[in-house]
Amino acid sequence: xxxxxxxxxxxxDKTGGRCIHCRKKLGWSNYGIVGARGAWEVDHSKxxxxxxxxxLRNLIPSCIPCNRAxxxxxxxxxxxxIFLETIYKHPHRFPELFQRKKRRKAKATFGxxxxxxxxxLSMPSVIGACVGxxxxxxxxxxAGLKAGDIIFEVNGIPIIAAVDLETMLKSMKKGSVVSxxxxxxxxxxxxxxxx
Length: 195
Ligand SMILES: [Zn+2]
What we know:
Elements: H1 5-14, E1 40-44, E2 59-63, H2 64-70, H3 75-89, H4 95-103, E3 112-116, H5 117-120, E4 129-134, H6 139-143, E5 150-154, E6 157-158, H7 162-170, E7 177-184, E8 187-194
Antiparallel strand pairs: 1-2, 3-4, 4-5, 5-6, 5-7, 7-8
Bound molecules: zinc ion.
């Protein structure tokens, strides 16, 4: 059945000009030209043999190889049969499948190792996280923290043990501004860090 240009346009745009099955980009002007780049045809979402109609809502664009290979299978059966194979061969055609990975939040990193201050100092009454080492150029190093510092307050919240600091940093987004209160020897210092 021949389709008007309006109908073809409408069908083509349903998938943004991609084959409904393999997502390959279709060449608008190569409609029905077997062997041409992006050659495509109108496919029936529900096959005519299975009672599918010629209404626009049942019509979808398909590249010619897919449309021919599909034969009398339903679109769904055919899609399932080629889906994994296509993803494997052409992952770039399925950007939406891989977006989650890209969107994953960047973790805040501070760049220091800490231990429970009471254990390091063998003084059960001392609270805080004692800095063991500071990675050069890390957020902690840029803020001015040094090995031996005892962090006992972050953003106004007391840090009783090393695990408190780790838990707090894990919950922060990258780029967060953190204020720390630190004991260095007998002096109490305040630091601002961008994690
Ligand atoms: Zn295709």
